[in-house]
């Protein structure tokens, strides 16, 4: 079986910058609270008529394809991770497929929230390993800003999320010492409702009611403290799992790219793993938490900043709603 490698990577974020100060005008919050508790300074929000979940994914994909020296017609499969698809159905994968002018190749949507990109990467990796496909586009894209409650009631969640997209092209690696060395996926549905949007709800006779709009169940709910506690346990666990599986120590890692959930979570992981700050990617101050888009945006920026060189050992890790958590170890 052959390894897959990241042949190209790109990201796209909307132009519209929304600062903590902007949010102060909409709810009882403060720049100081948001910075201290999350590390976020600003985030991007979509512009209606310009940005969609699918077209942001398409733009990130074009950039990734360009880096890989491939054209859209070379793509064998699309895997699209998002919790904020353009429509309830069909998925954003097919809409992005249309946007890129691709015909008949499969387009799969992945619904694993903050871990969605690594889950999607793992699926693409398997298709390349088996020899079924050669070039797989793996995308994470989100528009959160249209689904947040900009009021005092929603402040615990609304200040965190932002919009954006990232994508990679997976292609066969030249050797089995390079590329994606392993992926590790986990889930625990016991905590499904601890970070969730529970309406519209197909188990109710009326899927969407005025009551749901009024009681806020159409907006994300997060048991922040509980999610935080699980995150700081699961992140180191799943990173260590990837390292142990491949016979490496934390000190062998050249760059850790964690899902950008909270700067305090990232700092905790860094300390727990005994890594210097420069080996841990963080860009939450610019984009907030973009769930499925966060890992590929961070990876793409790290690459552009020259923080990833040929031969580097790069670890991706994520934790989020589900709960789901995952890691991927890559020899670049
Ligand atoms: O990406 C998926 C995974 N997600 C995560 O990993 C997120 C994990 N959780 C977190 O990052 C943190 O729990 C939050 C950033 C969401 C919240 O931080 P916290 O330190 O856990 O705050 P808290 O929820 O315990 O709230 C502390 C106080 C409360 O006031 P009282 O009860 O102490 O008077 C909140 O009402 O902060 C208040 N608060 C706010 N104040 C100003 C909550 N949200 C805000 C806000 N602005 N936006």
Automatic annotation (TrEMBL):
It comes from Pontibacter akesuensis. GO terms for cellular component: cytoplasm. Its EC number is 2.3.1.180. Homodimer. The gene is fabH. HAMAP family: FabH. This is Beta-ketoacyl-[acyl-carrier-protein] synthase III. SUPFAM superfamilies: Thiolase-like (SSF53901). Keywords: Acyltransferase, Cytoplasm, Fatty acid biosynthesis, Fatty acid metabolism, Lipid biosynthesis, Lipid metabolism, Multifunctional enzyme, Transferase.
């Amino acid at each position: 079986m052959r390894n897959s490698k990241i042949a190209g990577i790109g990201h796209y974020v909307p132009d519209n910058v929304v600062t903590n100060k902007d949010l102060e005008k909409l709810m009882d919050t403060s720049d100081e609270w948001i910075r201290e508790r999350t590390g976020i300074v600003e985030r991007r929000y979509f512009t209606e008529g310009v940005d969609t979940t699918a077209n942001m994914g398409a733009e990130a994909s074009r950039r990734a394809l360009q880096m890989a020296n491939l054209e859209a017609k070379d793509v064998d499969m699309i895997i699209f991770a998002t919790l904020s698809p353009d429509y309830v159905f069909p998925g954003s994968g097919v809409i992005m497929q249309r946007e890129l002018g691709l015909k008949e190749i499969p387009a799969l949507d992945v619904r694993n929230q903050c871990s969605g990109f690594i889950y999607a990467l793992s699926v693409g990796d398997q298709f390349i390993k088996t020899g079924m496909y050669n070039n797989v586009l793996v995308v994470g894209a989100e528009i959160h800003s249209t689904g947040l409650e900009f009021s005092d009631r929603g402040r615990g969640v609304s200040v965190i999320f932002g919009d954006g997209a990232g994508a990679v092209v997976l292609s066969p690696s030249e050797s089995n010492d390079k590329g994606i060395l392993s992926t590790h996926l986990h889930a625990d549905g016991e905590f499904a409702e601890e970070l969730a949007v529970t309406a519209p709800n197909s188990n109710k006779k009326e899927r969407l009611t005025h009551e749901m709009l009024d009681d806020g169940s159409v907006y994300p709910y997060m048991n922040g403290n509980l999610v935080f506690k699980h995150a700081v346990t699961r992140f180191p666990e799943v990173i260590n799992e990837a390292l142990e599986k491949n016979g490496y120590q934390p000190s062998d890692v050249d760059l850790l790219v964690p899902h950008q959930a909270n700067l305090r979570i990232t700092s905790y992981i860094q300390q727990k793993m005994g890594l210097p700050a420069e080996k841990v990617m963080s860009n939450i101050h610019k984009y907030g938490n973009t769930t499925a888009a966060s890992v590929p945006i961070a990876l793409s920026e790290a690459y552009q900043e020259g923080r990833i060189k040929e031969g580097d050992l790069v670890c991706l890790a994520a934790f989020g709603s589900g709960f789901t958590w995952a890691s991927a170890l890559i020899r670049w």
